[in-house]
Specification:
The structure holds 2 protein chains of 2 kinds. By secondary structure, chain A is mostly beta strands. Chain A is globular, with a radius of gyration of 13 Å. Chain A contains no helices and 11 strands. In chain A, the strands form 2 sheets. In chain A, strands 2, 4, 5, 6, 9, 10 and 11 form a 7-stranded mixed sheet that branches. Chain A has a 4-stranded antiparallel sheet with strand order 1-3-8-7, with no helix packed on it. Helix content of chain B is about 0%, strand content about 55%. Chain B is mostly beta strands. Chain B has no helices and 11 strands. In chain B, strands 2, 4, 5, 9, 10 and 11 form a 6-stranded mixed sheet that branches. The chains are: A mainly beta, B mainly beta. Chains A and B meet through strand 5 and strand 10 of A and strand 4, strand 5 and strand 10 of B.
Chain lengths: ~110, ~110
């Protein structure tokens, strides 16, 4: 079956611009996670959705970052007023349920802020 | 919050040798410890996981051990093959990842 997909695969933007990154989880997975991965580092947790609600958003670095999952399926990570330090790979993962179920990762969106 | 440390950052072995990667965690309440393999340009893929009610788990050439008292867990890969070359991550509490180990298996 289809895995987790993320679009776009690559995004180049200018400092100060707004970007949206999309994640399509595996059908039926209620849990969805966003991570940020810088070069040579492990994934850094950003936010976790259970259904439509954000169960844990403690990893969002500041109020420029926001994520939604209005229908409990597709999720969008939104970054306002992008900064060069936001450049990273943004990974999405989904699992059947939260709390210890296997996470399936997408290929990521490579964001470059010039 | 949970803090996960992973060692070594790089590991080079000869084909056929064993490889061991170690992680420590800080939160004694953590009860789920997955290991992921990440190849270039791809997302991490789960290779094995262990829960706090067991001390060891094996899957063919891969094994994971957990010492809850010492708060550390390890990944063991036996009979390494060149295709095992990748970056490996440990994690605790689902969402807290180590910094990764780049494993190179030389033919």
């Amino acid at each position: 079956g289809a895995g987790v997909s993320q679009t776009p695969s690559n995004k180049v933007t200018e400092k100060g611009k707004y970007v949206e990154l999309r994640c399509d989880p595996i059908s039926g997975h209620t849990a969805l996670y966003w991570y940020r991965q810088s070069l040579g580092q492990g994934p850094e947790f950003l936010i976790y959705f259970q259904g439509t609600g954000a169960a844990d958003d403690s990893g969002l670095p500041n109020d420029r970052f926001f994520a939604v999952r209005p229908e409990g399926s597709v999720s969008t990570l939104k970054i306002q007023r992008t900064e060069r330090g936001d450049s990273a790979v943004y990974l999405c993962a989904s699992s059947l349920a939260g709390g210890g179920e296997t996470q399936y990762f997408g290929p990521g969106t490579r964001l470059l802020v010039l | 919050g949970e803090n996960v440390e992973q060692h070594p950052s790089t590991l080079s072995v000869q084909e056929g040798d064993s490889a061991v990667i170690k992680c420590t965690y800080s939160d004694s309440a953590s009860n789920y410890f997955p290991w992921y393999k990440q190849e270039l340009g791809k997302g991490p893929q789960l290779i094995i996981d262990i829960r706090s009610n067991v001390g060891e788990k094996k899957d063919q050439r891969i094994a994971v051990t957990l010492n809850k008292t010492a708060k550390h867990f390890s990944l063991h890969i036996t009979e390494t093959q060149p295709e095992d070359s990748a970056v490996y991550f440990c994690a605790a509490q689902v969402m807290r990842f180590g910094a990764g180990t780049r494993l190179t298996v030389k033919p």
